[in-house]
Amino acid sequence: MPVTDKYEVNYGTWAIATAAFPGLFTALEYFDPNNGKHFTRPNGGILRVTTIMGFIGGFIIVYNHSTKRFWGVSENSREVKLDRYEIKSKLSKGEFPYGTSTLTPNLQDVAARNSKNSQLFLGIIPWFNLVSHPHHDVDLKKYYEVRPGEEEWGFKLPEHEELKRLSSTANWSGV
């Protein structure tokens, strides 16, 4: 399954936002000079600050677009296909689909609750979840149905009952 185009649109948006901030600042300085009548190029410190602002703003824009695709608010067929490939690959290897964590189950639960709908408040307080946890509210039975085009992947998934047994012995749920 080709995944080469997975991020190219996001990286392009991020790069444009990073370049747009100092460019816009310079254009505004050109049309309304700070020192009166003549345009002077903004100093390097100001341009560095606006570039950092563009970089951070671009990241938040891209993260917001990705979140909308993952939630299904905007076109997400590509992410669905990538998700199905990744999860089926992990299940066929006997791995937990959402990773393992060294944190206690209580801390994993806290991390999941803190970040569950944090994307809705992203413009106010950027809050990102960097913790692997089993609380994704996803029924893994949906990965056992074979959709058109998935036959060629050739994954051999373990029985669903085997997943239930694994999840009861490990710090993992979702089955």
UniProtKB/TrEMBL annotation:
Keywords per UniProt: Membrane, Oxidoreductase, Transmembrane, Transmembrane helix
Ranges annotated as spanning the membrane: 12-31, 43-63
Domain NADH-ubiquinone oxidoreductase 21kDa subunit C-terminal fungi, residue spans: 84-164
KW NAD (keyword) present: no
Domain NADH-ubiquinone oxidoreductase 21kDa subunit N-terminal: 10-75
EC number of this enzyme: 1.6.99.3
Signal peptide: none
Class of the enzyme per the UniProt entry, highest EC level: oxidoreductase
Designated name of the protein: NADH-ubiquinone oxidoreductase 21 kDa subunit
Organism: Wickerhamomyces ciferrii (strain ATCC 14091 / BCRC 22168 / CBS 111 / JCM 3599 / NBRC 0793 / NRRL Y-1031 F-60-10)
